[in-house]
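Technical annex, item 7. During the second reporting period the consortium partners agreed on a shared format for inverse folding records so that results from different sites could be compared directly. Each record opens with the tokenized structure and is followed by the designed sequence. A conforming record, contributed by the partner at site C, is shown below for reference.
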């Protein structure tokens, strides 16, 4: 066994016969065309693989794996399977032909898949004159304008695989590309989409793919999705080396026991047991290309994600047809399930005429199927750009009084348990989320609803009742019911003696009424967000005496539910303040004046100044003249 160097996977892209496979062979010494028909016809039909080992500036080894894709339009589905798992791309354009139709489509696909790093190579430089090379390079720069290859200041490198001209410069740029391309997978659950399976004599079934996240160890038990079939890792290789552990971002060959080669194929995914499962219904944000035809509600399309291709139906939120160049929410129902998690990118293609029409990203792989469409659309709008911690809160909130297990949150987000626990820490501290029995998350609103469900049944019965009967009447799960009942017992709202539950006396009912007033006023502040009413306005709205509301406001302030804004009459709920502080974190290190803060929050000066002064006291901002530095 040997220790593996750091590695990265780079995909090729470009039109047929522009020299992708020849260039990979010149760089690595490996012919990526492995099929007899590819040799006979002289074109790439399926995915090919090769690797090269370079040396990083610190002297450490760095391996680059190439996924060589076909350039012919007839084999675009194979190209998509190869491009779906790569973090960077090498766009290849022949000097004697320039930009061609599949050059255009391949680059569009890379952008739709969220690839943000790459380089552009002009092959066959020996086949044209210096003047022609200058002209084709100028044309390529114009073509790349506005794409990620221009935004990242990617070079356009002329090379000749025949003469070797430019290959050293290309290797240097590939090394630079590998070093600047980050593979952010440390918090994600193990996932490896398969792109190939075959039998190796003496070993049995071998599958290959790019390990998107997690590590695979020799002897480990994994599940093959869909269907969750248990398989065991007999051996591992990366870049032709036998290893004990495969790292994320690597091309990996896994020797499996427990499955025949006929039962393992491209489009399946290796996962850790009891973590991720394939899904057939997802809520997504779709972007339609400006050149595409309108997309109708209930349209049937080809859905490509990672190494999978499935027929699917698109159900547009809002029902009316989607126009070219626009983005919309949609529910996609797949003919067969795929392992998908939020943030995964996909490409949509139509059948006739064949072509790429758009793509997008998955927002939710576990939609609630019986929820009203308007409610789901509003939930997706809140979810789509929210930080991970807020996304988890939204996922817990929609479960209402049912709550959701931590393992289910992992499955819904694609994050491992440590990452989920880290993300929910602040929400648990603020009381926005509650953790029951160590593994069940319940929102604060869900908890209040559970309390109300128990109390309404008790008030309706006005008698002693068995706890099991009371739970049955409320419809709450055992964990949520026991948590709510225990809270009511602590608050002396009900008595629990052995298995019997009864109401407390009338004096205690007065205490409950007080709690209701506290909850009502706290809810009023939370609903108002940052533009909170003055206490005098709130007293008038709720028909309470000012002295009474000030007493309740003092209690809420002591519990840190609301925060005083430097005035005895202006208070803001701590929840919206925390959310604003999280939004401001994106501006850390920049200066912001009152006018920009008003535009950023949509608030008037009446609220903007007190909030900024509060943030100064909390060391979220620091005043510098007429501006503030976001810390």
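Designed sequence (site C submission):
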């Amino acid at each position: 066994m040997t220790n593996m160097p750091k590695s990265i996977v780079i995909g090729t892209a470009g039109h047929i016969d522009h020299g992708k496979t020849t260039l990979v062979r010149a760089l690595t010494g490996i012919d990526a065309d492995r099929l007899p028909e590819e040799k006979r016809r002289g074109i790439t039909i399926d995915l090919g693989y090769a690797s090269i080992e370079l040396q990083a500036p610190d002297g450490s080894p760095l391996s680059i794996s190439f996924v060589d894709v076909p350039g012919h339009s007839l084999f675009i589905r194979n190209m998509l399977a190869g491009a779906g798992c790569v973090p960077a791309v090498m766009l290849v354009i022949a000097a004697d032909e320039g930009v061609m139709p599949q050059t255009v489509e391949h680059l569009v696909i890379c952008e739709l898949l969220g690839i943000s790093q790459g380089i552009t190579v002009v092959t066959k430089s020996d086949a044209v004159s210096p003047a022609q090379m200058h002209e084709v390079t100028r044309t390529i720069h114009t073509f790349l304008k506005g794409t990620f290859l221009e935004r990242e200041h990617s070079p356009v490198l002329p090379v000749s695989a025949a003469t070797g001209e430019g290959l050293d410069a290309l290797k240097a740029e590939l090394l630079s590309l590998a070093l600047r391309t980050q593979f952010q997978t440390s918090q994600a659950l193990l996932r490896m989409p398969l792109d190939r399976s075959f039998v190796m004599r003496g070993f049995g079934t071998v599958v290959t793919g790019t390990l998107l996240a997690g590590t695979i160890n020799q002897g480990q038990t994994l599940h093959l999705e869909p269907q969750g079939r248990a398989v065991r890792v007999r051996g591992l290789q990366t870049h032709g080396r036998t290893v004990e552990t495969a790292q994320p971002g690597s091309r990996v060959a896994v020797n499996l026991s427990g499955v025949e080669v006929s039962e393992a194929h491209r489009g399946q995914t290796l996962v850790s047991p009891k973590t991720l499962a394939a899904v057939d219904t997802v809520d997504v944000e779709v972007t339609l290309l400006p050149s595409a035809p309108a997309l109708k509600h209930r349209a049937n399309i080809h859905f490509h994600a990672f190494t999978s291709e499935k027929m699917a139906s698109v159900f547009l939120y809002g029902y009316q047809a989607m126009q070219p160049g626009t983005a919309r929410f949609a529910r996609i129902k797949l003919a067969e399930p795929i392992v998908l998690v939020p943030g995964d990118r996909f490409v949509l293609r139509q059948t006739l005429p064949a072509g790429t029409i758009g793509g997008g990203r998955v927002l939710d792989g576990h939609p609630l199927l019986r929820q009203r469409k308007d409610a789901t659309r509003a939930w997706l709008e809140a979810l789509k750009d929210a930080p991970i911690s807020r996304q988890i809160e939204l996922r817990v909130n929609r479960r209402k009084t049912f709550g959701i297990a931590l393992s289910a949150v992992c499955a819904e987000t694609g994050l491992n348990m440590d990452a989920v626990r880290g993300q929910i820490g602040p929400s648990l501290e603020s009381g926005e989320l509650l953790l029951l029995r160590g593994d069940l998350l319940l929102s604060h609103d869900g908890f209040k609803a559970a309390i109300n469900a128990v109390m309404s049944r008790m008030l309706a019965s006005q008698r002693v009742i068995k706890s099991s009967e009371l739970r049955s009447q409320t419809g709450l799960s055992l964990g949520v019911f026991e948590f709510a009942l225990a809270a009511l017992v602590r608050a002396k709202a009900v008595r629990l003696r052995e298995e019997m539950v009864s109401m407390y006396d009338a004096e205690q009912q007065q205490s409950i009424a007080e709690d209701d007033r506290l909850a009502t006023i706290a809810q009023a502040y939370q609903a108002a967000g940052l533009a909170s009413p003055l206490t005098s306005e709130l007293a008038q709205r709720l028909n309470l005496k000012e002295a009474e509301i000030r007493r309740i406001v003092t209690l809420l302030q002591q519990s840190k539910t609301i925060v005083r804004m430097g005035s005895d009459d202006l208070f803001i709920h701590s929840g919206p303040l925390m959310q604003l502080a999280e939004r401001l974190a994106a501006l850390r290190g920049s200066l912001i004046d009152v006018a920009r803060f008003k535009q950023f929050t949509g608030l008037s000066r009446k609220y903007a100044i007190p909030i900024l002064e509060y943030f100064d006291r909390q060391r979220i901002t620091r005043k510098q003249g007429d501006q503030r530095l976001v810390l």
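The mean pLDDT is 88. The longest strand covers residues 327-338. All partners now use this format for quarterly exchanges.
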